[in-house]
Known about the structure:
The protein contains 12 helices and 10 strands. By secondary structure, it is of the alpha/beta class. Helix 8 (198-209) links the parallel strand 7 (189-194) and strand 8 (215-220). It starts with a helix and ends with a helix. It binds pyridoxal-5'-phosphate (PLP). Pyridoxal-5'-phosphate binds at residues 52-54, 82, 159, 161, 193-200, 292-293, 318-320.
Amino acid sequence: MDLLSQAMAAVPRAQLGSLPIPLERLHRLEQSLGVSPIYIKRDDLTGLGPGGNKVRSLEFLLGDALQQDCDLILATGQVQSNLCTLTAACANKLGVDCTLIHNGDRPEQLQGNLLLNHLLGANSVFLGPVDLNTRSLAMEELLREQKQAGRRPYAIRNGATTGLGAMGYAAAIAELKTQCAEQGIDHLTIFAPGGNGGVAAGLIYGNQLLGNPFTLVIISVEDDTPTLTRHIEETLAETVSLTGVAFSGIDWNYTCIVDDYRGEGWGINTQESSQAVLDFARLEGIFLENVYTSKLFVGMCDLLQKRKVNGPSCYLHTGGLGSLFSQYTF
Ligand SMILES: *Cc1c(COP(=O)(O)O)cnc(C)c1O
């Protein structure tokens, strides 16, 4: 058994995503950049709710919740949180209740992910404009209350960026390796976004455990490279302690973390990223959004055009469709 299979065998998993997710060519983008081949991993199509990367993390987190026989899932996020919406969708699929705790007010009209949460029947709590620490404390308080009331609640912490959540993208490495073998793709460079760094941590771990079949370029959407690197390393340490399969540190020959495209930080468009949403929809018929996927797209295109990255490339589309409907009004 390879090391990644060994790590995956050590942790529980629920089947939630419509896996494997398609790996496809972006022919029109190739023509427009004069670079080929460029692939896309369609993790915006993971199969539940509006799709996206969090379904992969939730397979492991909710697998753990089911193993503990939990009957209520708690998650926190800002009002347009992709994690919250996907948690509600996945909890429904598994037949457990879901409560979402938001920092922010309930708007007059529900839009984007908030509208989806309502349609999904999630129980939503709006704390008003509180800080993230207050939001976490509110979840821990609710966890205690629900336990006292005889429920078996399970909390999803830190936007699903935990040692267990990261296993979603370690598993995705195995999926990608199989697809590359089937399609005859060699030495693929995967471009992925970095927020809290859970996606990145999983990719880095899976890649090392399979002998580094890929090169990973992580485009930060929020923090500078040293900060994001620290977050990734913290998550990796948690992952290793859960799986017991050792990791010898980030292998910088196969990993690059770039912070040149984040602009003013999380959720704040750059001029290029808001243009990217339009460009990509018009080129390929695929929607990006403002927070994560458009900045990744700008970063990937720039690095490919400047020939800073060469060879077959893959855009890892992490989803976020639900939030798009709150980002634009025309
Ligand atoms: C949460 C999220 C990410 C970032 O994941 P991290 O693990 O926090 O780095 C990227 N894209 C989308 C659409 C997300 O919802």
